[in-house]
Each structure stands twice: as C-alpha cells, then as structure tokens.
Design brief:
The structure holds 2 protein chains of 2 kinds. Chain A is α/β, with parallel strands linked by helices. Chain A is built from 5 helices and 5 strands, in the order E-H-E-H-E-H-E-H-E-H. Chain A is globular and about 30 Å long. Chain A starts with a strand and ends with a helix. Chain B is an alpha+beta fold. Chain B contains 24 helices and 22 strands. In chain B, strand 21 and strand 22 form a beta hairpin. Chain B is elongated, with a radius of gyration of 38 Å. The two termini of chain B are 73 Å apart. The relative contact order of chain B is 0.05. The chains are: A alpha/beta, B alpha+beta. At the A-B interface, helix 1, helix 2, helix 3, strand 4 and helix 4 of A face helix 1, helix 2, helix 10 and helix 13 of B.
Amino acid sequence: MKKVILTVDDSRTIREMLRTALSEAGMDVVQAEDGVQGLEVLQSTIPNVIVTDINMPRLDGFGFIEAVRSNDQYRGIPILVLTTESMDEKKDRARRAGATGWIVKPFDPAKLVSAINRVAA
Amino acid sequence: MDTMAAIKQTFFQECEEQLAELESGLLAIERQESDSETINAVFRAVHSIKGGAGAFGLDELVRFAHTFETTLDLMRSNALDITHNLVKLMLRAADGLADLVRFSRDGTELDRARIAQLHAELTRAASGDAAPAIEATPAPAAADQGDGPDENGFTPIRFSLEDLVAADFGSLPDEAPKGPLVVSFRPKPELYAKANDALVLLREVKRLGDVMISCDISEVPLLTELDPEGAYLSWTIELDPSIEESAVREVFEFVTFDCELDVSTKAIEPSQATDTADFQVIPVTDIAAMLAEAQTPVESVPVTPQPEHKLTPTETLIKAGMAQAAAQSSQQTTIRVDLDRVDRLIDLVGELVINQSMLAQRVTEAGIARLSEVAVGLDDLEHLTREIQDSVMAIRAQPVRPIFQRMSRVVREVADMTGKSVRLVTEGENCEVDKTVIERLADPLTHMIRNAIDHGLEKPEYRVAAGKSEQGVVRMTAAHRSGRVIIEVSDDGAGINRARVREIAVGKGIIDPDAQLSDGEIDDLIFAPGFSTASTISDVSGRGVGMDVVKRSIQALGGRISISSRPGQGTTFTLSLPLTLAVLDGMVVTVAGQTLVVPLTAIVETLQPKQQDVHGMGETSRVIAIRGSFLPLIDIGLQLGYREEEADPFNSVAIMVESENRTQSALLVDGIIGQQQVVIKSLETNYGHVFGVAAATILGDGRVAVILDVDAIVAGTRSEMNRPDHRKRSAA
C-alpha cells in the first residue's frame, strides 16, 4: 500500500521539493503550511509519517509535535523534523517534544526516503 | 521546464516575499512597534531563504543567510540587546541579502566587498555574548508551548558533550581483524513514545545484509504487572562482517538517546556477546508475533477518520491557533497566474466594451424603442460588461507596499551618503494601483526621495539652528481620491529657495529676466528641462537626470505631478495617477468636425460662455471670467491646428479643466456629444508622440477619436505666455 506522508512547512519551495521527492518514491503527499493547518489535515487524513519544519508561523514545529503526541488518536504517527545541521539544540528540543527522527536540510531525496523507511513500515 | 527549474522559480518568488516580510518586520522593530511574533517572522524569513538556497547549492547565499540568521536568533532569544545600531545593521544586512538573492537569480552585479563587510559586521555583532546565549535558547514563541516533558509522560533526556562524542565516535571500527559486528539494542519506553518502532528498525538492519537477530524476553513481566507503555524487550543482532558499522549506526540514528545501544566487533559466538544470562535465540520472523503478544506500546493507527466530534486537546489547540490566525490577513487563498494571460483577458474585455458600445449605437440608429426587449437586454449587457471590466482590472491591481518598502532602502542609502539623519514615514501602503503603474513608479519615486533628502532636508546642524529636530522626516503617502491614486512625497526641510531657482532659470534662459511669476510658477520651474538646482552635481541626485524626466515619466502614465513648498517648512510633491492604464472615462466632444475625448478626471465643469465674460489679452490670448476669476481660454481647434481662425466662443462650449498644481483653464470646443468610457489604445507604439494627444480610442460608431492630453495643452499655452519671444510679441 502506498505510504501517505503529511508535509508541514511554511516554505512553498520546501513543500514542492518534498512533494517531488516523495512522489517519485511512490508515496502520496498531503501538505500543510503550518502547525495549525497540519492539525486540521490530521482530522481527515491519518498519514503514515509526518515531515515537519520547525520555524513556522501560528504553531511552530515543537508545538505541533507536542499536540500530535498528546492526542491518543495521532500519537503513534512517526514525525520527522526538518532541521539545518547547525542546530543540534533544535534537534534536541524536537526530540524532547516527541519527534521520531530528523532530516537535515538541504536534504537528499534518497536520505529522505531512507529516513521515512526507518520510522514507518 | 523541468521540475527542478520550476521549483527554483518558486524559490525565487518566495524569496521576494520573504525579503519584503523581512524588511517590513525590521522596520516595525525600528519603529518599536514590534512584538515577539515580529522578530520570529523576521527570523523565519531569513531561515526560509537559507533553507531553499541550500537545496539549490547557492552557497554564497547560504553562508550570508546563516550568519544573518545566527544574529537574529540571538536577538530573538534576548541574548542581544536590540539597539538602534543593531537594527540599522540588520536593515543593511537585509539589503545585502536581497542583492545576493538577485545575484543568484539574474546574475546581476554584486558588490562582494560590501557583502563581506556586512558579513564581518554580523559576525561581530553575534560574537559578543553569543556562546552562553546559544545554550540558554528557549525561543519566545516556543517557550509557552511548555518544555516540560512530564505533561506528555516522558522524561527529558539530558545529554552532555560526552554522550555526543560517545555516540558519534565511541566505537570506531577496529581496523585490524574484521570480525562480525554485534549490536545490542535495548529500547527505553521513550523510544516508543516518540513513535519509533523496534520492528521497523530491525527490518532496516536486515536490509543491510545477512543478520542474525535474537530477542531477549527475560524481562517481560506477568500480564497483570505489564505496563502497556513499558519497554521489556531487547535484541542482539549479529551482522555479516561485510556490513559497515556506519550503516548500522545510521539505522539507529534517531533512537541513539532512547535506547541502550552497543556496537562492537567480536570474533566469538553471538550468544556470548552479551552479559544477559537467560537468553533465547528466536528466528526473526517470530518477532512480530512476539511483539504483538507483548503488547508493545506502539499502537496501530486507525486509517479512517473518527466521525465522533469530541473536543480533543488537538482541537483546542487548533481553535487557539485559528484565533491567532484570524489576526493575520496573509493567510488568504491565492493562485498564481501568468501576467500575459491577465493582459490577454484585459485586451479582450477592452474589445468587448468597444463591441458592446457599437452594438448599442446600431440599436439606437435602427430606431428600436428604448423600452423594447432588445434595448433592455442590451442595457443589462452593458452593466455586465462594466462589471467584468472592473473585475478584470482588479486582477492587475496591487498594493503600493512593495514599492514603498523599496524606498526605505533608498532612504537609508542616501542618508548614509549625505550624512543626514532621516526617518521615512509611510502611509496608505495597501492602496491598490495597476501593476504597470506601480512598476513604472519606481524610478520617479526613487529620484524624488533622493531629491527630498539631498536637496530638501537641511544638514543636521542647520536643522538644529532652525529649531527643528536633528532627524529629518520624509513622508510618503498613498490614497485613493475620486478615481485616481494620489501619492505624496514630502520632506520637512527648508523648502524651495525661490530666489535661487529664479536666478538659475534666468541664467539658463528658461524665463525672461522680467517675467512676473507667482511662487507656484517659480516652484514649477524645477520641472523645466535642463534645470538643476545643485550648484555642483552631487553624487546622490544629480546624474544629469532632473525633475523634468520625473515629470515626463509620470505623464507617460497618464498622471500629473505638482509641487508645493513653504519656506522653512518643507516641500511636497503630489502625484496623481490613474488606477488603470486600460480604460478611461471621457467626455466626447467635437472640434472642427473632429471627434475628441477629454479625460473626465480633468474636467471641473462645462459652460456656455457669455459675451461679457470673454476678454482679449494681448494679441493672441483670451481669458474667460468665471465667478470672479479669470481663466485662460484655450481654443482647442487652434491649438491642435484643426483650423486657422479663432472659434466664436458664443457658439462654443467651454470646458473648465483642472490640470497639475490645480490651476484651472477653459478649453473651447464646438460641442459635447456625451460621456463614455473608452478603451485606451496607445498611439506612440505605432506612431510617435504628438503634442496635445495622449492616446486614441475607437468609438461606438467605429471611428477613431483622439484622447486629449489636457496637461500638455494647458502647459503648452502657459509656457507660450511666459516665453520671452511671446512676451515681446504681446508687448508690441
């Protein structure tokens, strides 16, 4: 069965890149522009994996992850955060919030797909 | 266009939006009108640009954005005091970032020395107390989300530098004898709480090559004592010697801190690899069954949405988020359309308008009654056509904000160059105008702003001496007024030095030494071709381009420019621009058998001249008295060369027009046909500039009519009156 990936990022560019890379790997992509929209999408679609940015307006990545983890219905969804390599502290905070793993920007499509495979069957 | 190129284009479009966001945020901070969200937005803008740039290998841009972002992050976490100088530096860095983006996109010239300088300044600004700040960090926006992990039921993992070193370099593969790798993997509950799945990880390890996996179930308690969220299983994995340790570590990358992981090389039996006493070897296929039996906390996720609607914490969060979102208008749904398509649509609607009015005229000519079904239907069609036209025009309308923002950069640069302290105040940035008008405003506005600072504002010491604050103010406002957009650029400087202007104008032969000019007329002289007030051409505003060029470009847009100045209080330039360049409401008139269109925006009133109101003035001029004031009477037929003889004013109609700087004149025409919206067709593209003619249009009966350039006609008459040769002629 095709994996469904929810991507949450306020940057159109990154959203497009994720969509291209994931579609080429045969996955279905649902998009959201920030944490609030991400939570809205979850009400109708339960993805296999969530890929989320950290810096976003309205509800940032940390808040979004915490919201997902505190909901019984969504808490089992693996969440990968998009982060820039220089930000170990961000990675750590994201982990504490409940992130399953991380993808370092700029990402290589193969690494992205491998990261998804490491968190979802 | 391939996918990557398309995404790159998206990236650059997004960059422009981010740059605008960045600048407006920084300006708000500068005005001290910011809150924590402002600085977050500013940070995000730079962060986004960096993120995208990295993906396209734009290293120069990434490096600069990274340093910029670091400094912003320190500002955001209050580790750096937001001083005036720091904000100034940020603004200049934003300009530098904009240059780098444009360089990456268009390959335009790049002042690398300036970028390097900014880079160094940013690094310096960030250095100070940067180190402790990075450790402290909690960013304001996220701080209120609560760092406390207890709430979510898992313990925070503290990790020190030692852990990191241990994790990354702790067990480098032993170079000498290459035995099989043995991995001992014991998940903690946190691993499952973060939705990691031991089974998925084991499957990934298995992909690396031949592996032998054994599961230790010795710690699984009795069902009654079993915590469904606990972690009781651990595994030992023996890998084929051909598998690299780095590949194994990569599989466990995400769970390093949420499990006990030991990777070692052993040449002995796997069963001895661990200290665990009772320990069974289980074939890998059984693990799934075991996991299910052991009720590991990874729950299966329902794939269908739940129809029930309880208010879950998530929904509460969504609601809170939505409330916040309501305050932000930028979340509107938009689509991107190629401008060519819009313009094609505008062209077609223009043709539709012409066709519709032709049809209306045919119906009238055919003698069909006004109340007949055909005529009524045609009326409806006219309304619809108008509405379509308005809606299509609205697509091209854009707020003046970007251009106003661009001016703030000009202000900074010119202020730096002249050593003057300047504050730019903008109002009405949401005012919408046709895109083309906006684009063509950039150059004139830049020139006007430069002039205002360079020539308008006094040096700080003079300002203080005059009892003004040291910092000069340049104000730029936009507003809609009776179907036009009015943009004003004003300064609070010394005002125009009229004696000096007059002197220069006489010196350059622009006016006669004895010319009697009002203050307004003297001020207008700065628009005269070749006029430049600076005694030496300065670096800033003088490049041989004067206000005459500004005036011409505004007129080319169907706009007017006027000036008003008060000594010691400053100067205001007022631009009046059409909202659209495609249509115009006009009054259709006849002159010497020709049909002409006078733009309605210029017309104040029309009247039938009475004998006692018209007076001769000199040989060629006539004036008309209207309510006690005398207005020049301009004979259009004579001015445009349609006839040699003066028209008889008493068998004509006078149209009072107001031109730039609000002076009024009366245009003499033979008769008025009516009022009509006309589609503007440029003549200059195919023909060339003709005095007094702005453009042309096609009327309902299919005839081509010329649209009058009222300002040019009025100005032409006036300059004729002031020109030395004309004066001599009048005096004779």
